[in-house]
Write a structure and sequence with these properties.
2 copies of one chain form a homodimer.
Chain A: H1 6-10, H2 21-31, E1 35-36, H3 39-44, E2 60-63, H4 67-80, E3 84-87, E4 104-107, E5 114-118, E6 123-126, H5 132-138, E7 144-145, H6 156-161, H7 169-172, H8 175-178, E8 179-185, E9 191-194, H9 207-211, E10 220-227, E11 229-230, E12 234-241, H10 245-257, E13 264-268, H11 270-280, E14 289-296, H12 298-314, E15 318-323, H13 326-337, H14 339-346, E16 351-354, H15 364-378, E17 382-387, E18 392-399, H16 404-423, H17 439-446, H18 448-461
Parallel strand pairs in A: 2-4, 3-4
Antiparallel strand pairs in A: 1-2, 5-6, 6-10, 7-11, 8-9, 8-10, 12-14, 12-15, 13-14, 13-17, 16-18, 17-18
Helix pairs in contact in A: 10-12, 10-15, 11-14, 15-16, 17-18
Chain lengths: 475, 475
Amino acid sequence: MNAPTTAQHLIPHVQQRPVPDALVAKLKAHFGERCSTAMAVREQHGRDESAFTTVPPPAVVVFAESTADVAQVVAWAQEDRVPVIPFGVGSSLEGHLLAVQGGISIDVGRMNRVLSVNADDLTVTVQPGVTRKQLNEEIKSTGLFFPIDPGADASIGGMSATRASGTNAVRYGTMRENVLGLEVVTASGEVVRTGTRAKKSSAGYDLTRLMVGSEGTLGVITEVTLKLYPLPEAVSAATCSFPSIEAAVRTTIQLIQMGVPIARVELIDQHSVRMVNAYAKLGLREEPMLLMEFHGTPASVKEQAETVQAIADEFGGQAFEWAMTPEERTRLWAARHNAYFAAVQSRPGCRAISTDTCVPISRLADCLLISVAEAEASGIPYFLVGHVGDGNFHFGYLIDPNDPQERATAEALNQQLVARALSMEGTCSGEHGIGLHKMDFLLAEAGAPAVAMMRTIKRALDPHNIMNPGKIFLL
Amino acid sequence: MNAPTTAQHLIPHVQQRPVPDALVAKLKAHFGERCSTAMAVREQHGRDESAFTTVPPPAVVVFAESTADVAQVVAWAQEDRVPVIPFGVGSSLEGHLLAVQGGISIDVGRMNRVLSVNADDLTVTVQPGVTRKQLNEEIKSTGLFFPIDPGADASIGGMSATRASGTNAVRYGTMRENVLGLEVVTASGEVVRTGTRAKKSSAGYDLTRLMVGSEGTLGVITEVTLKLYPLPEAVSAATCSFPSIEAAVRTTIQLIQMGVPIARVELIDQHSVRMVNAYAKLGLREEPMLLMEFHGTPASVKEQAETVQAIADEFGGQAFEWAMTPEERTRLWAARHNAYFAAVQSRPGCRAISTDTCVPISRLADCLLISVAEAEASGIPYFLVGHVGDGNFHFGYLIDPNDPQERATAEALNQQLVARALSMEGTCSGEHGIGLHKMDFLLAEAGAPAVAMMRTIKRALDPHNIMNPGKIFLL
């Protein structure tokens, strides 16, 4: 018999809260075919990209098409104290979508309209099911773009809920900096608007940023107003291979400390390069590599690139290669975004346990290098990619899900890594969120008084704990 | 007999909550000379820079020297349900410091140490009484600076509490973007830490940003970790006079929409220029003017300035003049920061009622020009300055505080302005906060459900309403 799964281990207080038959009937009567209890649909909504998915699926799935739909589901769920779990595209890595206490999955994927583009103000308002690629496709003609790019083609609602970021955050910030306002359905089924389209405001509590990163535990996001940016006049991307991870990281640290306004600076270790080469049929040098992008006027892009090239030279960077055409650039960045999938394919049947620590930039080399040594010593296949300009990096431990020993080893590696990051005044999660898997880490990082404050806010805004219960902390 | 003052008018539910003699005695025994009930000290702590200060002063002032001091005062205040009001340097413009329900003013001005500078990480941790000028003076040798600059030499604690910004926000953001973490004493006297020194995080609710802008109503800030920036390699400042406010504003809108990374772009109307000339013995052309600053490498600064000069030319900008030396620059910016004081001096005995709307950049010209016409028509002396790159601007109506008619006119102007800004999806407060004077505006802007959510959070975290009660909203 297998050992208990990690998910079961991490969520000891799981208690399935039943969805009364009468509520299911009411939902079916109201939503018709948009309310499903088919097992395949429920199972699809009961998992995400995280490694362990062994809890039962939600009892019901409702495909919402409007804020009013969401508000109706939540209001009824509130009456019966039934959990509701917002679902975008299912690309969470931390178990956010798992129905650990049962309930209703509200799929907002059909709420996928770009509601208004205000090009003159550099803002856009979208429904939560719009994905980041769709958004950029739809606003292409405006000369503007939305820079936040987690690996997956995630939904804007999900990205808001997890305070996501990606490769452009070093220059453009994360969802924390780029959500101007929200429409949210709260636990009572009421519709609340937060923020305005003004660029800044001192008007009352910052409900927008309280909601951003709250992982569906305080409300269902039904509309998002985002900042946009003018497409840079000039863009150039370059790769540079290094004799060691340390050399690549020290190059990064120096360019950040000098204030070079680089748009992207991504570390890809030699394992990732190998996996990406195999997956995407590329011929990148199988050495640690920085993948960089510069945005600005032609003159400033040239100047930035020269500065970085000079720093890289100092640290032994070789083969500084330019991606001159947009097609080449797209191919390179697609390769970076596919690193996770490339890695998972490199070991058939494996699952990836992804780490997500982020440390102050001065500690990045220390934190990374010790962790690389530990990963190498463990014997577990792994890859390492990093938004190193932000001090954020991800190990992916590629484990056999049926081998409890590998799982235990990977978890021990992650625990050591998180402890190290926290001791360096960093965070256990740079961009993935806490979800099911990092509650103990959050407690270690934030401390009991801060987590108690979060719980107090949660209890006040969701007294019956129906909004994505069992995530971030247990009540 | 005078008409009721605005402050009394705006805060109808004022109810002085007594500070028991036994508590005063306990505070005096514990803090000795650092606890004062002298009327002069109390009065100094019962007012700020806002126009009307007619409520009684706090009953007691405690000069805190440590987090433990603050925690002790709050814990005792909690036992007796006595209000506590944090006090930095007293430069609030919205009545934040007024003891509308009595209580204890906790002066954190002596908590003025820079605790740690982490130059390699571009972060600094300070006590709340450190002022923005002191901070920049103390870190001068590191090659870094802290850009947020409200007009006054405000305390970092107060700037955090009001989500302040200033002239550099167009490039560097506001306190919302620049506070990485906090230490806060909550209503129970407990010490909570929020955030880490990592540049980004998805670890749990964003308590840092909930506290930033909460105006002392959720806790007393006792430590602040801030982002710093490398001093730009090159800085140049320029003034440009325009034939009209509209021409200056249209220049600004275009440069923002083009994505020029300008560091500062301030509008100063002809009245402000005249007042500043008189106050600071300058000889600026008494026409609407943009005061600009460019940060970057020498080449990028040159390029930015050329772009802006070309745009300004299109709109009839004249006399584009460079401030070449650091001394000239300092003199210009000091003049800008002193505009408020220059204006108040221009009409002896007057008080300034300052507006603080912020609108999406595309609506800036419309919002501003109608409001200028209204101000001109009113006959009230006024001045206009604006962080126009952010869509934020301030009218200062210079009224005779003893003339109820002038006061009523100024308030009517402000009400029309706020209504206009809200109709344009803007905010009633770009950077000053709500305090006592804008509660109705907040309700109009955010809507009843959002303000109800703020109240719910407040009640949960401060059940006896002792933390700066009567600000932002009434409970």
